[in-house]
Amino acid sequence: MAIAQDSFDIFRSNAFEGQVATIEVCKIISRMVEGDFIPFGRAVIRGAGRRSCAPVTAKTVASDIIGFTVRSQAQASPTMPNEQAIYASGYSVDFVASVIEDGPIKMLCVDGALAGDVVEVIVNAKDDNLGRLTAGGKGVELNMVRWVDDVEAGSVGEIRVHGLLSVEAGATPPPPPEQ
User: Fold this and answer.
1) CB of 104 within 8 A of CB of 158?
2) Looking at 1-10, 112-121, 126-135, 149-158, which range is the least confident one?
3) Looking at 21-25, 108-112, 169-173, which range is the least confident one?
4) 12, 49, 146, 170: which one has the fewest Cβ atoms less than 10 Å from its Cβ?
5) In sequence order, which residues have a C-beta less than 8 Å from that of residue 78 and are 6 or more positions away?
6) d(CA 43, CA 55)
7) H-helix or E-strand containing 119?
């Protein structure tokens, strides 16, 4: 007889920023990094060059954001460790970044969120929170992306991206694809 398991969410929060599940089907694209170092698990905008991306800025609006950087084991840290023996982890300029367009991804929620809250991208920070996610009116709203479960402030939670990140007020989102 098969074992029934109902505890799939027990270890849900044990993840790193930008991590995707290996058993989920995701659409991940490659983009050349421009402008500045982009840590894993951050929102990115389209870069100036062909098939490129760049970090978000204070001028970023929802329609500029093309996806979120995916954690990669293949990227060496571009920095020496700091006093706490922590390395910077992400994509350096002129490296190819993996950016998720469709599928689930683990992201850090700066201020906490409830399941179903709209995802917001922090664009006005001058610290490590630039490009991270939150909820509650503190960032650029991606009205087509929501938090899957409740997530505490400073914890990692799951979002699901489905290609279209936001629609303008009054616009009708496209219908879901036929199955």
Assistant:
1) yes
2) 1-10
3) 169-173
4) 170
5) 37, 88, 92
6) 7
7) strand 118-121
- Mean pLDDT value across residues 43-68: 95
Reference 64, options 41, 83, 47; nearest CA is 47
> How far is CA 69 from each of CA 11, 16, 103, 106, 148, rounded to the nearest angstrom?
22, 12, 12, 11, 18
Q: Are 158 and 149 in contact (CB under 8 A)?
A: yes
Residues in Cβ contact with 76 at an 8 Å cutoff, skipping those fewer than 6 apart: none
* Distance between CA atoms of residues 131 and 120, nearest Å: 9
- Residue 133 near residue 120 (C-beta atoms within 8 A): yes
Parse the chain into domains and list their residue ranges: 27-162
Quickly tell me which residue has 């694209």 as its tokens: 29
**Residue 23 and residue 2: Cα distance in Å, rounded?**
20
Owner of token pair 């950087």: 69
Contact 103, 27 (CB under 8 A): yes
Residue type, 171: A
Cα angle 50, 67, 55; round to 5 = 70
Query: What pTM did the predictor assign?
Result: 0.82
